Amino acid sequence: MKFAYADPPYLGCGKLYAKNHSDALVWDNPKEHKRLIERLVDEFPDGWAYSLSSTTLHTLLPFCPDDVRVMAWVKPFCSFKPNVNPAYAWEPVIVRGGRKRTRTMETIPDFVSCNITLQKGLTGAKPLDFWLWLFTVLNAESNDEFCDLFPGSNGGNHAWKRYCNQQTMFQQKRDNDFKSEALDLFQSTEER
Hints:
alpha/beta; Rossmann fold; 6-stranded mixed sheet
């Protein structure tokens, strides 16, 4: 399967990135986000996720297909700004698709609670726990393809490698446990 994640400059926040990215201000136009969502729908039918700000959810959600889920990244520690009350302590994550989960698989919550990153050199860089939760929500497997459309600090690609390594190690352990159980069963049958 092929999954994508889009974390563009949030609507109205292009100025935060304009110094390093000459095209950042285009993201202050809702039509640019609409085009991005259309691209996600067209190019990534297996599944995708899209981060945005809580204040723009009402503007951007109507651009999405009806079968999306709005999930949340809750930030127990976040940047508190003077004269901003209540604080912006969560961000919506729109998710579509993903590999179907079986009834025996663990149920994944529609939110993740983890702190913001600090000193990553880029406003809005997502923490490792966010990425691992997102890959789990999509039910991604190590042989899938993951496309981070706005790699920024490259945290998504690093997290994907770590996730895939964990998946591979888990699969090997499960295979070894199964082989060991089968061997034990075979030996106990032989002894009878």
